[in-house]
Amino acid sequence: MSEREPILNIPGVVTALSLAMIAIHAARIFLLSDDADREVLLTFAFIPARFEPSLAGTWFPGGAAGDVWTFVTYGFLHADWTHLAVNVLWLAVFGSAVARRFGTLRSLVFFAVTAAAGAVGHLMAVGTAFVPVIGASAAVSGFTAAALRFVFQAGGPLSPMRASGEDAFRVPALGLTAMVRNGPVMGMIVVWIAVNVAFGAINLPMPGFEGQIAWQAHLAGFAAGLFLFRFFDPVRAG
What we know:
The chain is 60% helix and 3% strand. It has helices at residues 5-8, 12-30, 34-44, 63-73, 81-102, 104-126, 137-148, 176-181, 183-198, 215-232; strands at 203-206, 209-212.
């Protein structure tokens, strides 16, 4: 039992992020009318049409400040309980490993940065179309990519002979070149990309809107987590 404890023990920052997502979704479902919920989505979802010059400052709540905060706040809104559950469970698995390595502050900033990267990827993919995106999937994808940099390393939390306690989360990370040569890591990356692209045609139920799974945002969040990992990693190589 003691050998499994580091994986099963979810860090406080992951718990806090998950509870915030659950509380927000519950409030939207049980407390808000459809009209009020649409207002929440217009205010906090990431909607590329905000950056359409002909609509600037005339239609969306929040104005210029909303143009900034929606790059992150969309990550706390979800289409339904299934969408939320998938993100919370995925964050619990891979986000916990990364949070144990990064600590609370780095993890919170990493969540914001990878969510923002996902929004940028979505914006680049759809232009200024009215195609809202919600959900923590881009940030969760970033945490997944970060976790793949070290969880399969010798002594890491998912290696056959992992180290004890917190040492499992402090093993040296794989470099990008080494990741390409690592079978398990590349296998997971290929499967992850294929699943995200395959599910890109699924419609998400949003009151008053039509949306699809924003797989481009997921890929952008994943890429950000992969390439920005070294700027957040407190464990020095060598």
